Amino acid sequence: MNRSSIQTVSLARRKVLLGLAACTAMMFSLAGTGSASANDTVIAMMPKFTSDPYFVAANKGAQEAAAELGIKVEFNGPVDANVAAQSDLIDSWVRRKVSAIAVSANDPDALVPAMKRAQDAGIKTMTWDADVGAAGRSVFLNQATFPDMGRTMVEMMVRDAGTSEGDFLIITAVLTSPNQNRWIEEMKKYAAEKYPGMKFAAVLPGDEDLEKSKNVALNYLQANPGTKGVFCVTGIATPGVLEAVKQLGLVGKVTVTGLGVPSLIKPYLKDGSLKEAALWNPIDIGYGAIYITKALLDGTLDPASGVVEAGRLGKLKFISKDTVLLGDPYIFTKDNVDKFDF
User: Fold this and answer.
1) What are 220-271's pLDDT values in tens digits?
2) What is the pTM of this model?
3) Beta bridge partners of 205
4) Residues near 125 by Cβ (< 8 Å), separated by ≥ 6?
5) What is residue 122's DSSP assignment?
6) Tens digits of per-residue pLDDT, 153-188?
7) What is the DSSP string of 77-103?
């Protein structure tokens, strides 16, 4: 090989090497961009409050979805059903410029201003479990339709009490709670049509506190001995009300049913003081909420399609232009409660 040939080969090799170097740099650059994009996606997820096993289970599902999607979910909220604390936390997430905010609200109206401030800052907002006004979010993941929940709770009471006649007490969460108020509305509507002898004598708040729910039920049942049954429209109230009924020696005389978290109601299902309670899988609602939020961030959430892809849950259906349905209520009994670990 003469000198000219050697120079030609060297020049060609340099071009190849430079080309490879450029390609390698581009590959690292693209890989770095993709990784940073995935790693930089932070969904801030807020429960009504953090101490309820229901919301602990929801976070388990959320983290499962986050791992599958390669994003980060920051799960945080107030320790009790405190609307002001929820609003303050949303504002702190806005200042940190998280990618999206997903909220289970303690009040349908009070959180709207904070959610709108997030939207104004370019942050996507959605709700799960408990909604806010439509101006405050793009989409809501509803765990079950409100009519289905109302019908389910009334039918459980009639089955378990053996009657639809008489006065019944409702223990709710807080009086502003959006889900509970809609369920109560549907319960009353359904009962008026099918069981007109069922009278809802009072709706009292347990403030999402087991001990307070117990004391509210104790005082009410002592003052109103003719009460046929107690509806618990929040899962944290059910064991408290059951303790009140047991303490007063009213098991078999005052029926308790409503929402129930398996880990909290299992002892009562086993000892017969509770026959059945309804809920949905909170792991699934946390999981589904993250998939929906990711679709919102990606711009792939399309109500016109009628469905949204949600990992192992398959395709969840839109039941309106801005509401996705998780599924039907599930009824826990002594025969199936051992299948659940939340």
Assistant:
1) 999 999 999 999 999 999 999 999 999 999 999 999 999 999 999 999 999 9
2) 0.73
3) 172
4) 100, 101, 102, 103, 115, 118, 119, 136, 137, 138
5) T
6) 999 999 999 999 999 999 999 998 888 999 999 999
7) --SSS-HHHHHHHHHHHHHHT-SEEEE
